[in-house]
Amino acid sequence: MADKLILDPQAILEKEFDIDFKGYNPEQVDLLLDSVIKDYQTYQKMIRIRNQKIEDLEKTNASLRAKLIEVEGRMKAQEDAREQYGASSNVDILKRLSRLEKQVFDTKNRK
């Protein structure tokens, strides 16, 4: 299947037909070709609009992907920080508890 159109509005407009004795009415042919030209112009406009929308959506998609990667990176960093903080805070709590126990038991033993 060819990716290129054979006709465009200008080619249709400039097309000349030979006049034959038993031919079609030239005015009817011209009217039909005028309609075909309008359709071609409409299709070309629609294609331009669709291509622009596709381009805009691709830009938006790329931007959203970049933001997603950034957010995932932040979340991973926060999870890592939580794990590190959580482990160190547990150790800190155990140390504090141990010191408190020593103080409590030392004061009880002294009495």
How would you characterize this protein structure?
Helix content is 82%, strand content 0%. With 111 residues, the chain is mainly alpha-helical. The protein has a domain at 25-86.
Sum this structure up briefly.
The chain is mainly alpha-helical and about 110 residues long.
Q: What level of helicity do the residues show?
A: over 70%
Mean of residue pLDDT? Answer: 83
Main sheet characteristics: none
Uncertain stretches of 5 or more adjacent residues = none
Strand content: under 5%
User: What is the CA-CA span between the terminal residues?
Assistant: 100 Å
Order of SSEs? HH
Tell me, what's the shape?
Answer: rod-shaped
Number of strands: 0
User: Strand pairing plus helix content: what structural class?
Assistant: mainly alpha
| Radius of gyration from CA coordinates | 40 Å
- Can you count the helices? 2
Oligomer classification? single chain
List its traits.
111 residues; mainly alpha; 2 helices; rod-shaped
Secondary-structure map:
Blueprint: H1 9-14, H2 26-110
